[in-house]
Design brief:
It is built from four helices and ten strands. The protein is of the alpha+beta class.
């Protein structure tokens, strides 16, 4: 079970957009990765925000948040609306608001909301390449798949095996069919 902020980060990472009512539309893009010496600099997140004050309820968004947080869709709606109001209030009172795990928003003198700091990259590991005399490369740390990715891979393997068996059976049937006719 994830917190609301973790679920929002996951949604933004997957969909590359997150609309916060009366605040704006966050859009995520990634820079290219680079190799510098013996280190890999992973792709870094880049966030942009565009003003957008009106939004319609998005069943997919609230369903996603509800599933990730293990709560009802109605609870997800209330939690996100409360977070949105808190962000809006903090921006009005303090001129900035921290959207935990995602970014720090800041209001300028013209009352425009911008991104002061991107926090997503702090959740990414740094990779170090170790090379020995045999020109083998070891990348640390080892990345792990979550259970849902493993389940998806298992399902895809099952489907591929099923299709392969079906093709073999059709081939056998056609082979016997042509042998009987000739």
């Amino acid at each position: 079970m994830l917190s609301l902020e973790q679920a929002l980060l996951k949604f933004l990472s997957i969909n590359e957009q997150l609309l916060i009512p009366n605040v704006g539309l966050l859009t995520l893009s990634w820079s290219s990765s680079e190799i510098v010496g013996s280190s890999i600099i992973p792709p870094l997140p880049q966030l942009q925000i565009r003003p957008q004050s009106f939004t319609l309820a998005d069943r997919y968004f609230y369903g996603f948040i509800a599933k990730e947080m293990n709560i009802t869709q109605m609870q997800a709606i209330f939690a996100f609306q409360e977070l949105s109001r808190n962000i809006e209030t903090e921006l009005a009172q303090n001129g900035f608001s921290v959207v935990d795990k995602i970014c720090v928003l800041q209001k300028n003198d013209a009352n425009e909301i911008g991104i002061k700091e991107v926090l997503i990259h702090s959740n990414l590991p740094n990779l170090q390449i170790n090379s020995d005399d045999n020109n083998t490369v070891e990348v640390l740390p080892e990345l792990e798949l979550d259970e849902s990715a493993t389940e998806t891979n298992n399902y895809l393997i099952f489907v591929i095996i099923g299709v392969a068996i079906l093709v073999i059976c059709i081939g056998i049937v056609l082979l016997f069919h042509f042998k009987v006719l000739h």
